[in-house]
Write a structure and sequence with these properties.
By secondary structure, the protein is of the alpha/beta class. Helix content is about 40%, strand content about 15%. It has a six-stranded mixed sheet, with helices on one face. A six-stranded mixed sheet has the order 6-7-8-9-10-11, with helices on one face. A hairpin with a 7-residue loop joins strand 6 and strand 7. Helix 1 runs parallel beside helix 3 and helix 3 packs antiparallel against helix 5.
Length: about 500
């Protein structure tokens, strides 16, 4: 029999830490959903035994520490590209990720003590956790990676409700389902068991039924517009090697020039694919002639610069190149990666960190979502790398494109969970916005999602080659999420929190 006093014992924090660790298994690429049911139910049970906010905070913090330290461990792989310089920082990234992001479980756990009975505490925990996910999307520029709702991405049907309330609605329903068994662990009787089983079945059935009906009535029309995805899978250790830059560029051109049944309308290279600034480098522009003279447009990632007020401003850009290598349009990345593309508060860093910080580029921000229009072809918008992980920020709703192009490079992270989870985040944006997304990586997972988030085709991690795909038309209407963004789900969560905290009586079958 499980002791109700276990939360008062010294082992409760160890149990919480271990549950946080196994919860990571519920996300891509494994999707071991049973791990999430076990982890969150035991966490909920621990919290129900707690009487003080301080102890609840500690339990939630150690769960969150492990959940994020191990869940984000793939980030450290970027430091191993040059292990002699940065390898010693690997364990620090684990501690830093767990130490900071653990607060996003600790605070919801702390809020549980405001509930007057168990079912209120259950709702408070789930609602406040989702509000925390939303805060995580913008605090210190934001990092909304592995939102709880992404654990449902093992099925196209189970994530279609994101078109209504976004990924945060899926997170709310997920956490409610995963943690409800904790109510039965606390008070094991038949009434509780019936309530719990009914709750889980009801939530998952609603998710499945909505998805089934939405996909059954899907309105997908394939166009005759062909996009060629080019993935050379150049190892990150070779990508910026000065002696290999010319060879790498030739690799892109050679793959792009392959003869297929139809000349592609768009040829797409990944993030910073070209080591040369093709807007200024006439020599390498000429090398593009074999792939551009037949009417194709090249969408290529590269570093560009402007000279403003006697200072260089670097941009992580996508250039659109037409016949003769002429620049037709461009997109500058606007949501930069902290500690990757710029260093926050660089001037205040301790002296021993500055040599490392100085190796990281200082990029300038672009102006945000932009639509690129070419006569006779569908309009498109650009999103570069981790810009795709931000719900509600990939499109200007007042000027929607026909499809999105996501350039990225997951070669930094090797054969880890990172590239798979990045792929899923892009999939979620397609469902939320009801828009086709073309995702292209130097190395990673490249492919196309239609406006329902269904894969039309992909190139797997570490695969070298090309993929020609006819893109689908958009839905022809905005999704409900496109109209309201995150407001519907966040408003609902705040109402649940308010009602659960002020309610004076508990009239539910769970006590």
């Amino acid at each position: 029999m499980i002791s109700k006093n276990v939360s008062e014992q010294k082992y409760s924090k160890i149990i919480a830490f271990f549950m946080g660790f196994i919860s990571v298994l519920g996300f891509a690429p494994r999707y071991w959903i049973v791990a999430l049911f076990v982890a969150f139910s035991i966490l909920m049970w621990l919290l129900l035994n707690i009487k003080t906010a301080k102890k609840a905070f500690a339990i939630g913090y150690w769960f969150g520490f492990a959940h994020f330290a191990f869940g984000f461990s793939w980030i450290g792989n970027a430091l191993l590209i040059e292990p002699e310089k940065f390898g010693w920082l690997y364990p620090i990234t684990l501690v830093a990720a767990g130490g900071f992001f653990g607060l996003f479980f600790a605070i919801p756990a702390c809020c549980v003590v405001f509930g007057r009975c168990n079912w209120q505490k259950w709702i408070i925990f789930a609602s406040s956790l989702v509000v925390g996910e939303w805060i995580r999307s913008f605090i210190f520029t934001g990092f909304p990676w592995n939102l709880m709702g992404y654990s449902l991405a093992f099925s196209d049907k189970m994530i279609q409700l994101a078109s209504v309330g976004g990924s945060y609605l899926l997170s709310l329903l997920s956490v409610l389902s995963y943690s409800v068994m904790g109510l039965w662990l606390f008070n094991r009787n038949k009434k509780n068991f019936v309530f719990i089983v009914t709750s889980i079945i009801f939530i998952f059935f609603i998710l499945w039924l909505f998805g089934y009906l939405r996909l059954l009535n899907s309105r997908v029309v394939e166009t005759d517009v062909v996009v060629r995805i080019v993935q050379p899978s150049i190892p990150q250790t070779m990508k910026w090697n000065k002696e290999l830059m010319e060879q790498n560029f030739e690799e892109y051109v050679s793959l792009s020039a392959e003869q297929k049944e139809k000349v592609p309308d768009f040829i797409v290279w990944g993030e910073t694919a070209s080591p040369f600034m093709l807007d200024r480098d006439k020599k390498h522009q000429q090398k593009l002639e074999p792939i551009l003279q037949k009417g194709s447009y090249l969408l290529a990632g590269m570093v560009t610069y402007d000279f403003v007020f006697n200072e260089y401003q670097l941009y992580n850009s996508m250039l659109v190149l037409g016949k003769n290598g002429k620049v037709v349009d461009y997109y500058h990345k606007s949501h930069l990666v902290p500690f990757g593309e710029y260093i926050p508060l660089r001037e205040y860093l301790p002296s021993f960190i500055r040599p490392i910080a100085n190796t990281i580029g200082t990029f300038s921000r672009g102006d945000g979502p932009k639509v690129i229009k070419i006569d006779g072809l569908p309009s498109f918008g650009g999103i570069i790398c981790y810009e795709a992980i931000f719900p509600g920020e990939v499109i200007d709703q007042n000027d929607r494109p026909d499809f999105l192009v996501n350039l990225t490079n997951d070669g930094w992270y090797g054969d880890s969970a990172g590239p798979y989870q990045h792929w899923v985040a892009t999939k979620m944006r397609a469902v939320e916005e009801g828009i086709t997304i073309v995702r292209v990586a130097n190395n990673g997972i490249s492919g196309v999602f239609n406006s329902y988030g269904i894969e039309k085709g992909k190139l797997p991690l570490n695969y070298k080659g090309i993929l020609d795909i006819n893109i689908d038309s958009t839905l022809g209407y905005k999704t409900l999420y496109s109209h309201f963004g995150n407001r519907l789900t966040l408003g609902f969560c705040l109402i649940l929190l308010f009602l659960s905290i002020i309610k004076t009586r508990c009239r539910a079958p769970v006590v």
